[in-house]
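Encode chain A's predicted structure.
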Amino acid sequence: MAGIGCCAYQTRVKHTMSGVPRVGVGVLLWQGESVLVGRRKGSHGSGQWALPGGKLDFAETLEACAARELQEEAGVQIPAESFQRAWVTSTVFDAATHYVTVFMQAEMPEAQFE
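Encoded structure for chain A:
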């Protein structure tokens, strides 16, 4: 019986080829009641307004990912320990693309206000 379950699982994973959801982090950087957004340049949603964010690297914490993506995409440095989890989504875009996105939030320090 255990062999049948194993084989059925292997067949299903081979059929979908990706088989594993990707994990992304979205960043809500608050300044009072405003939040930072920018236009996407990547292939997914190119030209649309979106929060900074991206893929979680292997062995990276959610907080470190949020800080890294914010620095890479907006040039804003916020310490990783400043981020808190806000919410999580799980979205299947098509038969081969499934993203779990963890949204992290932090407040923009007054020293960085423009």
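The radius of gyration is 18 Å.
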